[in-house]
Amino acid sequence: MNMAEKILARASGRQSVEPGEIVVADVDRLLMHDLSGYLTGQVYDREVSKPVRYPDRVVMVFDHHFSPPTEQQAVVLETNRAWARKHGINLLDCGNGNLHHAAVRRGFIQPGMIVVGSDSHTPVHGALGALGVALGNDSHAGTVLPHGKAWFKVPTTTRIEVTGTPPPGTTARDVALWLAAEIGEGELNYKALEFAGPYVKELPFWDRWLFPLLCVDLGAKCAYVEPDEVTEAFVRTLPGGTTERLARSDGLEAEQLLRFDIGELTPQVAAPPTVGNVHSARSIAGKPVRWAELGGHGGGRFEDIAAAARVLDGRRVHPDVRFNIVPSSREVFAEADRAGLVLALHEAGATWFPPSTGSNQAYNMGALAPGEVMISTHARNFPGRNGSPDAEMYLASATTVAASAVTGTITDPREITHPREVAA
Amino acid sequence: MIFEGRCWKFGDNIPTDRLVKSKYVFEPMSEIVKHVLEDLNPEFPLGVQPGDIVVAGKHFGQSSGRAIATKALKATGIGCVVAQTFARTFYRNCFEVGLPALELSSVGDLVREGDRLRVDLTAGVLENLTTGARATAPAADPFLVSMLEAGGLIKLAAARPEIFA
Q1: Nearest to residue B74, comparing CAs of B98, B96, B57?
Q2: Which of A84, A264, B42, B110 ranks highest by number of CB atoms within 10 Å?
Q3: Cβ A382–B58 below 8 Å, yes or no?
Q4: B27 and chain A in contact, CB less than 8 A
Q5: Touching check for B154 and chain A: CB below 8 Å?
Q6: Residue contacts between A and B (CB atoms, under 8 Å)
Q7: Which of B97, B81, B73 is nearest to B151 (CA)?
Q8: A23-35 residue pLDDT tens
């Protein structure tokens, strides 16, 4: 069996499982944010109304609000707090960071776990060798909260091998965006994805994170990087970090193998209307931007902030651009501060926001007027997601976002960081 | 399970954000239902009739896995939803909230906006009553059909507690 099958077999009390089977498995962690938590809590109290079976396995993170901007939203958060207290679940209130980053940093995710949540990017926990699967509110209300279980169809597995060393200026996010387009949105529907190959294996943990993150756009059920010494070293840095349940594949079990070489890949940008509409940064360079942001499920990492600081070293944010930085967790903000990046980016003209999920759906920041353009490290760019459907959202690496913040237009960051290579 | 109604046709890669926009998420369902898919076809929430059939292209219901998108679509009174392919959380949510869903790869070529359609979900057959065209899809998993018959996952778990005990 491969990693996903082993975890499903363990959690459903079976010796083995086969792709296509439906199993009922124990859930080790349920992650909810302030919106999904609210909707799930409403359904639970109205339609199920039982004690939560394993409250210590449930975590709610307020990440769409670092502070509620309206009375209605304040009421939602207060309702969530009361619900969390009533049922005795874990609550990380406003200011703790993005749901997934905060959960990892606080030690709620371990290799070998089954992690579920309504957030569609829940599969990102495959970066730690956990089986992360997005379920709907009714799975949580109907089976996870009252019984600690969920139903799963055992997926077939596609192995995605990435080889090559990209040229300077091209980051792991460029590779991830390019893969989304190259493979195609929805093209790996219902599958488990294993990201592998020398390129992926040599990435540090937080760059690996960007690959399971994209699986939802490909349509996949879950995705993972086979746990290795990088995973184990990272897990040891977490509070209570343990590899007790760590599962590894027996061999190269996959139904399908896709191979990609990224040796020539240049910086990439996803243009509206979907994550799969990816172009080289160079081909859409010159598009004026008004907002730039580091943040979201994949952004706001220390690595993103450090990359932006390198671009802004000796430069300033363009007067027509607002460059907002949203750390993905309190821990990242502390790390950025210790590295001197908070003041450096502040003085270069960027604005710091509290740890949260930032402009994701514009619940407390990031609404756009018709015609406004944002470039960010976020994970989604559907029209109308942030204010006007006539605004445009572009997705790119922190390096490209920072370079565009400097010039005021979408920019191939190598124009700034590696001018000689671009000219050649 | 047989459904007959007018076809409302939508395109590819439609996210749940466009079924229910973020700003309506906390509103009561009676309000949400007035805005379902309004950005893509303003006539839809105004003109949809009980039993109508929503047809979409590839990867329907991608993005956020919030069940409220399927609940809102169900609340419009449609009989069922047919797509070339569904995003997996959307497909799962359809059955969990009791909204019949059929995945049919050829549906895009088979139907036009406004055609009368007949869908036999258990047999996996779609018939276009306007043109006479007909196609068959793989049948839905029996576990998912039992969920629909029970009225959704929460009701199934209540009626058959041994499944999740």
Answers
A1: B98
A2: A84
A3: no
A4: no
A5: yes
A6: 128
A7: B97
A8: 999 999 999 999 9
The domains of chain B are located at: 2-163
- Which of B22, B39, B92 comes nearest A361 by C-beta? B22
E strand map for B10-141: 53-56, 80-83, 101-103, 116-120, 125-128, 134-136
Q: Is A309:A217 a contact under the CB 8 Å cutoff?
A: no
Q: In the sheet that A268-270 helps form, which strands lie side by side, from edge to edge?
A: A278-280, A268-270, A392-395, A373-376, A291-294, A322-325, A351-352
The predicted structure's pLDDT at residue A424? 56
Q: Which domains does chain A have, with CATH numbers?
A: 3-260 (3.30.499.10), 269-423 (3.30.499.10)
A chain contacts of residue B158, beta-carbon cutoff 8 Å: 48
Contact status of B125 with chain A (Cβ, < 8 Å): no
The answer to whether B84 faces chain A, any CB pair under 8 Å, is: no
pTM of the model: 0.94
Please name the helix (run of DSSP H) or strand (run of DSSP E) that holds residue A61, with its range, or none. strand A58-61
Pairing of strands B125-128, B116-120: antiparallel
A189/B87 CB distance under 8 A: yes
Domain B2-163, what fold?
Aconitase; domain 4 (3.20.19)
Calculate mean pLDDT across residues A33-60.
96
Q: Is B63 part of the contact surface with chain A (CB cutoff 8 Å)?
A: yes
Residue A304 to residue A210: CA distance in whole angstroms: 12
CA distance A360 to A63: 9
> What ipTM was predicted for this assembly?
0.90
Residue A124's identity, in one-letter code, is V
Question: How many beta carbons lie within 10 A of that of residue A153, not counting itself?
Answer: 18
Residue A106 DSSP one-character state: T
